[in-house]
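To make the argument concrete, we let one protein speak, a sequence paired with a row of structure tokens, as a model reads it:
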Amino acid sequence: MLTKNAVMRILCQEYECDSAPYILQVIGVNYIHATPNTHGASCHRVECKLSDGTHYFTGVLAKQLSSLYIVDRLECGASVSLSKYVRQPLSDGKSTVICLDLSIVGSPISVISNPEEYIVPHPPTAPSHNFVSVECDGHCPSCGEDPCDWVVVGPHIVKSIFQRNGDAEISGPLTKASRFSAYGMFTRAKYGELGKGNRKKLPDCVTNGLRDNFPDPNKKYVGFMRGDRAD
């Protein structure tokens, strides 16, 4: 059974994955080839339309999920469980969904009902701050991804934290608290819930991106620590 109102909740919830996993139906798959990048490698992405029986959205599969399509397992009509994802804001005020953890849970059947594309009624107001990115053309030597993890996920994390504060300027004690919150958001998006006391050292591109967007005025950072503290 498909999760009722899953599409609306995925696109409109303040925090991702609060009610995940969601059971959705694949109603379209599109394999997009791109021109070779500056390093000579041909980039591609896999898009799929996911429906809850009433509405659908178009999501982009994370690179590690592409094999689902390549081996012809991700077919139109199949049921899938989406348990990890992030919303990536676009320049036109809309957003796309990057599927980080998606698994097939049902064989292909006819498309349920006649779902329509869900349009978010009131796109969030653009924040007044400027996102600080990292300079990375193609493959990132720090996180090993193409495009860089921070370039993909960073804008959404920073935007979410500013929106929690009503787009007000973040300073003083809020800066450190915001940085810690951002660490946690990235870790959950990338690795899932690790459990109390379990930590992963983030790649330098992400760490530097977080510090650039939520800087300590004295440039003093604790660095990665195993246990109950990190900065």
